[in-house]
Design brief:
The chain has 403 residues and is mostly beta strands. Helix content is 6%, strand content 41%. The chain contains three helices and 22 strands. The strands form six sheets. A six-stranded antiparallel beta sheet has the order 2-3-10-5-8-19. The longest helix has 11 residues, at 6-16. It is globular.
């Protein structure tokens, strides 16, 4: 066959295909102005207005700091893109807190609900940190949650805007305090785990009964191209050190050594990419939150990514942080030493700012042949938790590949 006839040949093949049935664009509301809070006395059967109700099917875990909801998502034949949109406002919590929006893999036999019911216990993980990597337990598979969005709450966004003390702290360059903070990310690479019926959850490390109000929506945009067949790819959950259950703990073991994760592969994975999300935490001045720490990712003993996760643009989020603490620091202006105000939310941090979301690092791995493989995650200078000096790293990673 001559090459000049090839385009016509492929057009004929496409024309002969059975037309794909479009289902159109979809907007799926997961949470709507939902109250997330911490309450050791929380009782899901109480009369509290925001406790679990049959109409919203929201499950509250870990004294209310984790919300979990089963949702039904579209199952596309045609190619579609998906984005996540989240809005958050303080409901009285004045602090900045780590947060995670996640999906439970449908291939996981055990999950957070098993932690809550104590079907799954930390003792079943022996000396390992429970629930951060895939593990077979009594012929049942546990897989770590896959993050849809890592985010950090601002200091008191929305709720404290009219507070008298807050008004006195407002910088002259801030015209107004924002009523909420909004994040949006394209997560089309996660479409294979966002089909049919799944559990989607959100965690915020709040310790107050006031907590936060949040809304989450998934937007699915179907291709307008006729017979645009959906790309066949899949997702493997690799690791997630975030604390989602009472039986888990903040992960500070990077200071002890590397975290190795085995990856058994049954078939060739093409165009494999590792999505790596990392943030350092530790509220004291010399903690992992405020000091630069190198992250090193290796695959089968070869370094594939080595970088220092750091954000130095945090002052640009000042309008979201009305209750941020404010101090003065010495500087020079017009040749004279002066005291200039600076907010806690202005300081640079380990890959996040109060009010920011966190973008994944994407690491190209190419073709992965069938066999036994190993990821190694290292943060050599990470610090330990020492009494009130809380240092830990939230690290999650998942693998995306073509079938």
């Amino acid at each position: 066959m001559k090459l000049r006839y090839l385009p016509l040949f492929f057009l004929l093949i496409v024309a002969c295909q059975k037309p794909l049935k479009p289902i159109g664009d979809k907007e799926i509301t997961v949470f709507k102005d939902t109250h997330l809070y911490f309450d050791m006395a929380f009782n899901p059967d109480s009369d509290r207005d925001d406790s679990i109700q049959p109409t919203d099917s929201i499950i509250r875990l870990d004294a209310g700091r984790v919300l979990l909801k089963k949702v039904t998502l579209p199952d596309y034949q045609k190619q579609a893109s998906v984005s996540v949109k989240m809005t958050l406002t303080s409901n009285g919590d004045p602090w900045d807190k780590s947060g995670s929006l996640f999906v439970i893999p449908t291939t996981s036999d055990l999950n957070l609900l098993d932690f809550e019911s104590e079907t799954l216990t930390k003792e079943q993980f022996l000396n390992e940190a429970p629930g951060i990597v895939s593990k077979k337990i009594d012929d049942k598979l546990y897989e770590p949650n896959i993050e849809l969005l890592r985010f950090m709450t601002p200091f008191g966004v929305g709720f404290f805007n009219d507070n008298e003390r807050v008004a006195a702290l407002k910088p002259v360059y801030i015209p107004i305090w924002e009523n909420n903070v909004q994040w949006e990310q394209d997560i089309t690479q996660l479409l294979p785990v966002l089909e049919k019926e799944v559990y989607i959850g959100v965690f915020i490390d709040t310790w107050t009964k006031e907590g936060y109000k949040l809304s989450v929506r998934l937007d699915f945009d179907e291709s307008d191209i006729p017979n645009h067949i959906k790309k066949e790819h899949d997702v493997i959950s690799v690791v997630n050190t975030s604390k989602y259950a009472g039986a888990q703990q903040f992960y500070d073991a990077f200071h002890k050594g590397d975290l190795q994760v085995d990856l058994p592969v049954d078939e060739t994975l093409k165009n494999a990419k590792l999505y790596y999300i990392t943030t350092g935490h530790g509220g004291h001045a010399e903690g992992d939150e405020f000091t630069k720490k190198e992250n090193i990712i290796s695959f089968n003993g070869e370094v594939v990514k080595q970088f220092v996760p750091w954000r130095d643009d945090c002052a640009s989020f000042r309008r979201f942080n009305p209750t941020s603490g404010v101090w003065t620091e010495k500087t020079t202006w017009k040749g004279e030493d002066i005291e200039e105000r600076i907010a806690s939310s202005d300081y640079s941090r380990s890959n996040w700012c109060p009010g920011s979301d966190v973008k994944p690092e994407i690491i190209e791995l190419g073709t992965i042949e069938a066999g036994q493989h190993t990821f190694t995650f290292s943060i050599p200078e990470a610090q330990a938790i020492d009494n009130d000096n809380i240092n830990y790293w939230m690290v999650s990673a998942y693998l995306v590949y073509d079938k």
